[in-house]
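Re: the request from the purification team.
They wanted to know what the chain is likely to look like in 3D before they choose a buffer screen. I agreed to run a prediction and write the result into the notebook, where they can find it.
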Amino acid sequence: MVKFRFLSCFFLFLSLCVISCAEANGHPKYLRVGTAVVDSTPTTFPVEINGGFFPIFTDRVNDPLHVRAIVIDDGTTCLAMATADVCILSDEIVAEIKSEIEKRIPLKKEFIMISSTHCHSAPALLKTHAAGIDENYLPLFRQKVVESVVTAYGNRRDARVAWGKDFDPENVFCRRFIMKEGTAWTLDSDFTGSTGDFAQMNPGARIQNAICRTGTPDPSVYVVYFQTPDGKPLALMANYSTHYAGSRDISADYFGVFCEEIRKRLNADETFFAVLTNGTSGDTNCIDFYDPARKFDMFSVGNSVADAAFRAVKNMNFKDWVPVKMTDVKMNIGMRKGTPEQVQKAKKHLHELEAAGKKLSTQNDAYALNTVIMAQMPDQREITIQAIRIGDVGISILPNETYSETGHLIRAASKAPMTFTIGLANGAGGYLPPKKQFELGGYTTWRTLSSWMEVDAEEKIRTRLVEMLNQLFE
């Protein structure tokens, strides 16, 4: 009996040693990665679309919308990243979705990111300018995001990871220009809060009056790529910093094209997962205003970005396991509001329109409406910012349309060997102009529901994000 117990203990000890060897340095041999792609195309029509000053409706689908979720688990930290083909997310809908996910799977909301691609061809989930919300789409959208993350969590399997970047300079152009005096587009400054407009976004034919661009875009295509242990393509996350290319009706724009095209380049099967997140595109789009004859569309942009991502993949070295970490921080940011006199003027403007039986039809009308709405809102709003580490990759995440300058500054201060930014995540932070941009004025700085943050917000958020990133790499 004693001998039997001794042998039992010996074999137990031996088995533990084997397990220990398989888990080098106390971690599993492989990461575990799960993915899911869920069709989120609306089913009730007509649909109201985000992206304009006034309501836009369509009853046609050009190509399907999706929610793409990936769950990454290093054995200690498990996180989820979901990206949806919508223009912008509200704080409220993100909070509801994260709470529901937390009920369904053992994943805390602080370890969940939900971002939008910022395509301007999807149902409206947030009131902006004088446009509304597509209430019929909200329940479906919530359901699809929850389903994507829950399914991805259940699909976790062993994986190895690599990362890298290449460049696509063909589709990134700064869209803000300093203009000759008196030539920049301007509106009633009592409604926009502008102290002078010297910059203009998308000048079009006014490009002849432009002096110079106000920023330098980031042409990088950042890639994090996962394979199965035997080398089969499993999942690819990419990040690029330019606005939508444009599409008619309901469409995932070039973000959807990219996902299919990178799958083809990798000779992956239909189970392969790809996602393209929106980077620092607040002052960047696909249009070269100095070359108005240049042609592009969602297919040319999607293919071009996929080419760059594929070039990055060719030079990657895979690791079986890397540390995965995530930090979630809440910040209170002040809201720019009109003065009592400006609010009263806006109310008078809207009252006169109503008395005359007129609908909101001009941009001044939209800004007057936003001045009144914002006056009734709290002086501060809570936002969520996040930082993620995947091996040598640092990801800063914020709810804004972020200028290229902010991305450059975050990368320069980051301790991570490769750093990129995901914008338009976890809520509606609106445009985030660096402080000096307010001195230039122009659309992206004008006070509205899509540009509401205090003048010092960019520096506060950027500084905190850099701290969060660097703590993950200490």
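For the purification team: The two ends are 52 Å apart (CA to CA).
Please add any questions underneath this entry.
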